[in-house]
Amino acid sequence: MKRRRAASGGAVADLMLAPAVVMLRLPVMAAEAGGMAWHDETMRAISEKVAATAEGLTAAQLSMANSIANFWPELMAGQAPSVLNGVALERSMHAALRPAGRRVKANFRRLVGQ
Q1: What is the mean pLDDT of the chain?
Q2: What three-state secondary structure class fits 87?
Q3: Contact 105, 10 (CB under 8 A)
Q4: CA dist., res. 106 & res. 101, Å (int)
Q5: Which domain of life is it from (predicted)?
Q6: Which residues contact 113 (CB under 8 A, 6 or more apart)?
């Protein structure tokens, strides 16, 4: 239980950097708004969001599939199946947020270093 809380706290803490990343990107994106062509930072921002969304959706689906596959083994072991008690949804949610949290943290480090 503690390990799961620690893992979820890390993903949430990483996502807390999102407003700072937006504020660091705004001047660059505002400068690019005057021209017709999008430059590196804008394209990078868009492509990272699309990739993080796809990665998060895949991770969430794999987590749910794993929980469904463990239904009978958990039941036969005398445990409450994670699909029925909400643990599977919690794991799926954290799996979905993890890729976005990693990207936000990496973006913050990169943008502060510029």
Answers
A1: 84
A2: helix
A3: no
A4: 9
A5: Bacteria
A6: none
What is the three-class DSSP state of 98?
helix
| Higher pLDDT pick, 6 / 14 | 14
User: What's the start-to-end Cα distance of the chain, in Å?
Assistant: 39
Alpha carbons 73 and 38: distance in angstroms, whole number: 52
> Which residues lie closer than 8 Å to 14 by C-beta, 6 or more apart?
100, 101, 102, 104, 105
Residue 75: per-residue pLDDT: 92
Sign of CA dihedral 42, 28, 109, 92: negative
* Cα angle for residues 62, 67, 70 (degrees, 5° grid): 125
Domain residue extents for the chain = 2-113
